[in-house]
Amino acid sequence: xxxxxxxSVLGLAHLYVxxxxxxxxxxxxxxxxxxxxxxxxxxxxxxMTLMVPRFTGIDESAWFAWPGYIWFALVxxxxxxxxxxxxxxxxxxxxxxxxxxPEQVVAGESSAAADEPPTAAGVxxxxxxARTSAAAAGVAAxxxxxxxxxxxxxxxxxxxxxxxxGRLDPAFTGFRIAVVSDIHLGPLLGRRHTERIxxxxxxxxxxxxxxxxxxxxxxxxxxxxxAEPLQDLVSREGSFFVTGNHEYFVEDTAPWLRELxxxxxxxxRNENTAIRRGRAAFDLxxxxxxxxxxxxxxxxxxxALAGVDPSRPTVLLAHQPVMVEQAAxxxxxxxxxxxxxxxxxxxxxxxxxxxxxxxxxLSTHQNTQLYVSRGAGFWGPPVRVGAPPxxxxxxxxxxx
Length: 400
Prior knowledge:
Blueprint: H1 2-21, H2 30-51, H3 58-91, H4 93-96, H5 102-107, H6 112-115, H7 117-153, E1 157-165, E2 175-180, H8 191-203, E3 208-212, H9 220-227, E4 239-242, H10 254-262, E5 265-267, E6 271-277, E7 280-286, H11 301-304, E8 314-317, H12 324-329, E9 334-337, H13 349-355, E10 361-365, E11 368-372, E12 390-398
Parallel strand pairs: 1-12, 2-3, 3-4, 4-5, 7-8, 8-9, 9-11
Antiparallel strand pairs: 2-12, 6-7, 10-11
Helix pairs in contact: 1-3, 2-3, 3-7
């Protein structure tokens, strides 16, 4: 159903953009046919990008995934720019309306009708308006996609976030948790991406590393080599992982969990562990993602929190922010999440905000604090507008 809806939306978007960029600015003939053919090829490339990787390997799909996803972003922003310009076109419609045979004037042909001053003036105005709108939309869309690509492909920001926790023993004052989510290894992001993230986390000198889901978009056979640098993570209390929805896009999640254990990253599958400093401790728990329910591997909050000590704080790793409702009902002190990408591309964040309780950063829900990372990678187009990637370093302190 999702594919059907997405295909319908993309088809309508392409039809509208083609009309405004090509049909309205050219006359029938070779130029229109040539531009339309290029446009159709780009649309076909996008279809390949979205569909073919399901049936081929990661390496085989990378060559067309890059231009395909760039076009995805470009056509999206072209659509938005052209829609923003529609009121301008409507206001100037009367000024540009007078034309009897616009195609002849666009083509540069002469005719008795075209030689009539009122008609020629009207036609020229309409074509001028169409071409000016198309050029403005093209410049705006290209600029946003270029800026967004530079942001998405650049290094994540290191965010320093102080967190105060009730019941935290003073022995943990200054304890640092590096939170990274949504790395999204796949056709566009590979081993070098992982190496950079590992290097940045190690430079942050964290006591504990939390990877909160959506690490991969493929199987161990396809992406094991790309994930391998995770074995170089360094932290005093270890590295931990919970599944995101993308971990369930493959047929079997278990091979990835075994591979992460081999890399020294401990999956928390509806379970918890105590993090200790001498006699002091807090409980670190993790739940499976909501998407696991479709694969017989659902989140189980009661199991994940079984045996935690109510006299000390509990930190829960849960991929989706919306899971904080269940966490708050069970007295969790702090939930660490990702999933939203901070919206990734404006104005998509308004859609994300409609279904998630927080887009990014620190918030409070009942008595539970929720921290949401924007993620260190991207999904789909390699573009981030208004939502730069991040690795967050949370520094714990006791309540005064």
